Amino acid sequence: MENPLLLFPQLNISASKDKLYYKVMKSAIKEEPHKASKPGAKQKRNRLSLLLQKPEFHEGDHLGKSGNLTKAASVSPEEAVKWRESFDKLLSEKAGLDAFTKFLKTEFSEENIEFWIACEDYKKSKSAHELLPKAKTIFETFIQKDAPKEVNLDFHTKEVTSQSIAQPLRSTFDAAQSTVYRLMEQDSYPRFLSSALYQSLLQGRDPARAPLRRRSRSFTVNDFHGARPDFTA
């Protein structure tokens, strides 16, 4: 598979915004309870999502614009139809990534694409000393038990990732990123292609506000099989 760092040049984030990203994420995590059963946990989770999407926080990157597809990009039916070719094709285009992120929000599963983007950014770290604080922030946000935006990982992948946090490498999150990518590709991507949001783009109409769809976490990563994409930088 082609190196994703070449496929997604638009995901580059400047050094200053990069530091702010992890600083604000870390600050938000401290306000989150570590037990999802506490009263108000869902509301605090939603506030964290809003924080991660503030324009002044992500000016110029996908997380700051994903909720406003029509403002972020004008999508032609000809462009949208190409997203059927593959999940890679969808994510390789800014408008496709924005549309898919907007769709995941309607299913309350936007943490998957946010984790994937965070991993892409993590692998762009320019020096080794940047890895540790970034790795801890990603781990506390998306991977540890009862994390505010916990992604669905199998026990083995979570353990392997946890053990490497103390001395992280650029490949620390490769296995977890690959697992989440595969879940999105085989579970969310087919539903996106049949969604009202995508169909409206095919017909050249502005996507209407899609109804929120309560997702089920009954599936596990073991329900999906197939080769994992190679995210090695």
CATH classification, class level of the domain at 77-203: Mainly Alpha
Question: What is the assigned CATH homologous superfamily of the domain at 77-203?
Answer: Regulator of G-protein Signalling 4, domain 2
Largest sheet properties? none
> Which regions have little confidence, pLDDT < 50, spanning 5+ residues?
1-17, 31-44, 46-72, 216-233
CATH-derived architecture of the domain at 77-203: Orthogonal Bundle
Mean pLDDT: 74
Percent range for β-strand residues: under 5%
Q: Which term fits the overall shape?
A: elongated
Q: What's the CATH topology name of the domain at 77-203?
A: Regulator of G-protein Signalling 4, domain 2
Helix share, percent: 40-55%
CA radius of gyration: 17 Å
Supply the number of helical segments. Answer: 12
SSE string? HHHHHHHHHHHH
Termini, distance in Å?
Answer: 11 Å
Short description:
This protein is mainly α and 233 residues long.
3D structure, described in words:
54% of the residues lie in helices and 0% in strands. It is mostly helical. It has a domain at 77-203: Regulator of G-protein Signalling 4, domain 2 (Orthogonal Bundle). It is elongated, with a radius of gyration of 17 Å. It comes from Brachypodius melanocephalos. One of its GO terms (biological process) is negative regulation of signal transduction. Keywords: Signal transduction inhibitor. This is RGS18 protein. Residues 86-202 form the RGS domain.
